[in-house]
Amino acid sequence: MGELKVTCDPEDVGFDSARLRRIDAHFAPYVDDGRLPGWLALVSRRGEIAHLSAYGSRDVASGAPVEPDTLFRIYSMSKPITSVAVMMLYEEGLLELTDPVSRHLPAFADVRVYEKGPAFSPVTRPAAEPVRVWHLLTHTSGLVYGFQHVSVVDELYRRAGFDRGAPRGMGLAEAVDRWAELPLLFEPGTQWNYSVATDVLGRLVEVVSGRPLDEFLSERIFRPLGMDDTGFWIDGERAGRMATLYSADRHRRAVPMDTRGAELRRPSFLSGGGGLISTAGDYHRFTQMLLRGGELDGVRLLGPRTVAYMTRNHLPGGADLEEFGRPVFAEVPYAGVGFGLGFAVVRDAARHRTLSSAGEFSWGGAASTAFWVDPAEELTVVFMTQLLPSDTHPIRSRLRQLVYQALL
C-alpha cells in the first residue's frame, strides 16, 4: 500500500498533540540506555493515523534506523490472524465451533489428560470431553507450550523436542499429530492456558481449506487487505529492511541474536501461532479491518457479528484470566481481562488497573510487539520492536497510559 504517515491533525480526532508526544519522550530513553534497539509506535483514531513515531535502530551494529517499512517478527501477533482465518471458514459453513477437532484432525480422537507423576512416568487418563475448535480459539484445550517450565506436561513437550517451535525439519502436520499424542494439562474447557492451540488451528485451516497455511493467508487475508509485506519469510530484496532480533541480558539490556537467516527461507513449520513477519503499516491495516467490523476499503473478510462475537469474553461465567487461567507467562495482565476467539478482551477496566475501555481487545508478541483495538474510542494502536522476552520491560501498560491520557 502507500507510504505509512500521519494522515490528520491529532486534534481533529480528539487527541492533544503535546500529550501524544509523551509517548516519544517516555520510550526514547529505552533506546538511549540500551534497553531496546529501537521502536515504532502508531496511534490511529476514527480511521486516521494521529501519531507515528520511530526511534533507534533496526540494527544497532550498522546504525540502520527503524523506519516505517521496517520488517519485524511479530510472533504471537500471528494468532489473531490465524483465528480470523478459522472464522472465515466458519462463516462459509465448513466447520462449527463445537466440532471435535478430531473430525478434521483424526490424531485428536483419543487424547488423554495428565493426572500425576513425573515426566519419565506420567499417569494419564482418557479425556472425558473432546478437544473442540472453540477450545483451541480460547486456549482452553489443555494444550501447553514447552517453554513455560511450569508443569510436567510442559516438560513432556520439551522432551519431545517442542521448546520454542518444532524440531528442525518437522512440518506442521507432523507437529500437530505429535502434540495429540502428548497428554493434555487439564480436561478441555475447564481452565485457560497459553499454548500451541493456534498452531493446531493453522493446521485445521490447511485441512478444511485444502490449501497450505501460507497460501491461504496470502490469498484470503494479506493480498485482499494490501498487507504486502506480511508472511512467514521474506525474499532477499527485502532483507535490508528486516530488524535484527535481540534478547535481554542479565542487566535487561538488548544484545543481538543470530537467527542465521531463517527469515529468508520458507520454514518447514508454518506457525500460525507465532511465525509471521510484518510491518507496522500492514498490521495497522489488519487492526482497521477489525475496528470496522471485518471490512476495509471495500474488502470484507468477516461479517460484523462475527467480529463482535470473536471479541467478547468467552470464558465460562464471564470469568477473567486471573480467575480461570493458569499462572503462567502470557502477553497481557490477567486481572480484569477475559479471552475471546483469538484475542484478550478487557472485561473490567478498573480491575485491569490500566487505562482502557471495556471491550478493548488485544494481543502481543514474544519480541515485545503489541497491538490493541478499542471500539468504544474508535482507537487502534500498534507498537513494534524486537526484544525477547516480552515481559522484560513494562512496555504495554506504559503505552496504554500514554495513549489514553492524550485523549480529550
UniProtKB/TrEMBL annotation:
**Keywords (A to Z) from UniProt:** Hydrolase
The family database entries (Pfam families) matched by this protein are listed as: Beta-lactamase
A molecular function (GO) held by this record is: hydrolase activity
Segments forming domain Beta-lactamase-related: 23-403
Q: Enzyme class, one word?
A: hydrolase
Q: What is its EC number?
A: 3.-.-.-
PANTHER family reported for this sequence: BETA-LACTAMASE FAMILY PROTEIN (AFU_ORTHOLOGUE AFUA_5G07500), BETA-LACTAMASE-RELATED
Q: What is this protein called?
A: Serine hydrolase domain-containing protein
Q: What species is this protein from?
A: Nonomuraea harbinensis
> Taxonomically, what lineage is the organism?
Bacteria, Bacillati, Actinomycetota, Actinomycetes, Streptosporangiales
